[in-house]
Amino acid sequence: METYGLLVFPSQDYYGKELQKSEDLQTNACVTLARPLPTFIKEALKCVHDDVVSRYYGCGLVIPECLETCWILDLGSGSGRDCYMLSKLVGEKGHVTGIDMTDAQVEVAKKHIDYHMKKFGYQVPNVDFIHGYTEKLGDAGLKDESYDIVISNCVINLSPDKRAVLQEAYRVLKAGGEMYFSDVYASCDLPEDIRKHRVLWGECLGGALWWKDLYRIAEEVGFCPPRLVTASRITINNKELESVVGDCQFVSATFRLFKVPKKGPAERCQVIYNGGITGHERELEFDANFTFKEGDVVEVDAETAAILRSSRFAEEFLIRLAAGRAPAPGGCCPAKAKEKIVDPFQLVERLEAKDLAPKPAGCCGPKGCC
């Protein structure tokens, strides 16, 4: 078991007994939100019961795009806030399962199933909650290749065996499926005094992975290289904890991991977003490196092309080999491939400097395409 020298604390007690509401937290690790919420998600959030929202301790919003009819698994679902939002977004033909190791949180979530199904107008519940461990999904009865999407919100850092969590997520995902998750990451391999600090552990900092280890582990279990979506800096609101942390820095970051079938050599492609995904009709911000605007030609690397072609996004794009640099409709140049941002701390610096937004490809000038 890959424990990274962690001393495992009873997270069930910290989240089930010591924390009664989000305001009890000592850092902003579990309440950080890096991007503004789309209107349709705001509307879904309004439908979630107040008791569920008040017991929410996530570190981001883990709501990916293109969700209709999907089967989704939420690792460490807590009070069920994200599950209930997703229950509304996948529709009555989709399904959401939440799994959590904390009995008290599972009970909070289960208590409000009828309330939300009536709120959404569903005849049959499309959400369920089970007690179990993210490292042992099979023990909870979750079968191979049974979900389109696995989400997780500030939970993996609490696991003593992060490799097992990713391996199990990979196992239960269908081919072309995605793990979309927010978590806390460290700027370095954390020293023992931080790893063994009880409060820092409960606040999601003590168990944080060095971000480079995420890339290594994800690829070792079979995923494509992680795709960084967004990140935000974590601040500590306690002088004593600040002194323990020292020069170590932390971010809350969202990543996408795709389970793409191995199909031999892939090639660079040009892709055109068809538009129409709910809440992203004109523009799809896929990750920190690629934003697709409806109708625009964008050149992507072979890995990105394989993901788009093999995943639930396949029908949302026109994909063709990048044999030449054909101009986009209207005479504009397709966007050039650029160096990818993979370091969440680098992304935070760019965001804080308000320098992240990719510059749109300029239209062809009098001398032709650039």
From TrEMBL:
Top-level class of the enzyme under EC nomenclature: transferase
Entry's EC annotation: 2.1.1.137
Molecular-function annotations in GO: arsenite methyltransferase activity
Catalytic reaction annotation: arsenic triglutathione + 2 [thioredoxin]-dithiol + 2 S-adenosyl-L-methionine + H2O = dimethylarsinous acid + 2 [thioredoxin]-disulfide + 3 glutathione + 2 S-adenosyl-L-homocysteine + 2 H(+); arsenic triglutathione + [thioredoxin]-dithiol + S-adenosyl-L-methionine + 2 H2O = methylarsonous acid + [thioredoxin]-disulfide + 3 glutathione + S-adenosyl-L-homocysteine + H(+); arsenic triglutathione + 3 [thioredoxin]-dithiol + 3 S-adenosyl-L-methionine = trimethylarsine + 3 [thioredoxin]-disulfide + 3 glutathione + 3 S-adenosyl-L-homocysteine + 3 H(+)
Chain ranges of the Methyltransferase domain: 71-222
Assigned protein family: Belongs to the methyltransferase superfamily. Arsenite methyltransferase family.
Protein name: Arsenite methyltransferase
Species name: Platysternon megacephalum
